[in-house]
Amino acid sequence: MTGFGFGFSAFQTMFFLTFGLVLCVFIFVIVRGIMQWNHNNHQPILTVDAAVVAKRTDVTHHRSSTTSMYHSSTWYYVTFEVESRDRMEFSVDGQEYGMLAEGDYGRLTFQGTRYLGFERN
To answer: Where are the domains of the chain?
Structure first.
């Protein structure tokens, strides 16, 4: 295979470019997560009157190529509407998701984009 004159083949060049791109995306995701966590920590904890207006799930399926086993992951989201008619969607755990129903009214507690709880009236 013909190189580029510096001892690198086309395959090696593509490998390093792909590796570099994946590494950059990985670092970006980590930095963005840390920045969101830090932003939430600097926000006040608020408790407001709110209603549950929607619930949704996001299910992903994974298949292992070596063992042919399947694994699925589920993320749960709840949308609340506050008195000003603004809507906010929060990620919640499965148990909390199961306890909430559309139409529930109560007090929503959150910090930035972090869901802290909902207490029904």
So the answer is: 7-42, 45-120
Token code pair at residue 107: 């007090």
Burial class (CB in 10 A: 0-12, 13-18, 19+), 100: middle
pTM: 0.73
**Taking the domain 45-120, which CATH number applies?**
2.40.50.660
Q: pLDDT tens track of the chain, all 121 residues?
A: 455 555 668 888 888 999 999 999 999 999 998 998 999 899 999 999 999 999 999 999 888 777 778 889 999 999 999 999 999 999 999 999 999 999 999 999 999 999 999 999 9
